[in-house]
Amino acid sequence: MNLSGRDFLKLLDYSKEEILYLIDLAKVLKRKKQDGESHRYLKGKNVVLLFEKDSTRTRCAFEVGAMDLGMGVTYLGPTGSQMGKKESIADTARVLSRMYDGIEYRGFEQTIVEELAKNSSVPVWNGLTNEFHPTQMLADIMTVSENFDTLEGRKLVFLGDGRNNVANSLMVICSKLGINFTCCAPNQLFPNAELISQCKTFAAQNHSEIVLTENVEEAVTNADVLYTDVWVSMGEDASIWKERIDLLQPYQVNKRVMSMANPNAIFLHCLPSFHDLNTKIGKEIYDKFGLEEMEVSNEVFESSQSKVFDQAENRLHTIKAVMYATLK
Fold first, then answer.
1. What angle do CA 11, 15, 17 make, to 5 degrees?
2. What pLDDT, on the 0 to 100 scale, is given for residue 235?
3. Band (305; pLDDT cuts 50, 70, 90)
4. What whole-number percentage of the chain has pLDDT above 70?
5. Is 228 within 8 Å of 286 (Cβ atoms)?
6. Contact indicator for 325, 22 with CB cutoff of 8 Å
7. 3-class DSSP state for residue 328?
8. Residue 280 — left, alpha, or beta (φ > 0 → left; ψ -120 to 50 → alpha)?
9. At 261, is the secondary structure helix, strand, or coil?
């Protein structure tokens, strides 16, 4: 399969076969990494990472992945470039694509990464936008595939704010791969209606279904994967914490909720997670609202069913697969 020169902006742009190819390629690269086998296939190339939002996993995965492939890496953080301030997005893309072989963007509106790609002569990769998080999805489904013998027909349930980039992207990738997807959230936090319609079309083609429900027990019964995310996404105003807590507290993934799923069900979270008081924000939430745990209980987070650190590691291997496949 030839993906050379392709942008990686959202999974709506990729076919089932192309998505599975990237996941299989990531597994090959993971084995090479674990075996200590050199795979500097892109030696001599250089990539630039444009971050308007800070990150741990995304930055480290792109940097280590690029270096494993033999590439040079430049990181430009939130104050590291003139993009959008003194220089337009289009001009930034035209300049950087004269110097680099690939451009990663992590930030705000999807229109920004689309504008970068439109004006770039080299592949552009979406490290996260407000609407989509496609590199995260490859790692998520790779982790699911490492725990189950098949993907088709599995049931993945997202509990939380169904409008965020993770929920959107999970719905897309599940519908493309024939995985049954359930969004369990308050009605006002369901995903965008147009995206739901698109995904239902894909799901019908791949013999799976998209379900939206407010009922936790209905959602998680017979589930293979329970997935949640923080209740207030990066970039959203802290003033909405109380509103989100009031709406989403009934959707916390705890031992009772896990017990309703299949016995061999796994728990996933894209991280970071507020499962204890060992973070600055966690302590602030406790002081204001008295909550020691939020979207997931510490008992579930630290349980054998939790695969969140396998999932985090797989960010490296799947991002490496995207870079290699589009630059080789």
1. 120
2. 73
3. very high
4. 100
5. no
6. yes
7. coil
8. alpha
9. coil
User: Catalytic residue numbers?
Assistant: 106, 133, 136, 229, 270, 315
Helix, strand, coil tally for the chain in percent (to 5): 50, 15, 35
Q: Are 212 and 167 in contact (CB under 8 A)?
A: no
Average pLDDT estimate for 46-73 = 97
Average pLDDT for 103-110:
97
Phi-psi region of 271 (alpha: psi -120 to 50; beta: other; left: phi over 0): left
Amino acid at 233: S
Cβ neighbours for 11, distance < 8 A, ≥ 6 positions apart: 19, 132, 134, 137, 169, 172, 173, 176
Band of pLDDT at residue 144, cut at 50, 70 and 90: very high
Give the single-character DSSP code of 296: B
Question: Could you tell me the pTM of the whole model?
Answer: 0.96
Distance (Å, whole) CA 205 – CA 193: 19
Answer yes or no: are the C-beta atoms of 212 and 196 closer than 8 Å: yes
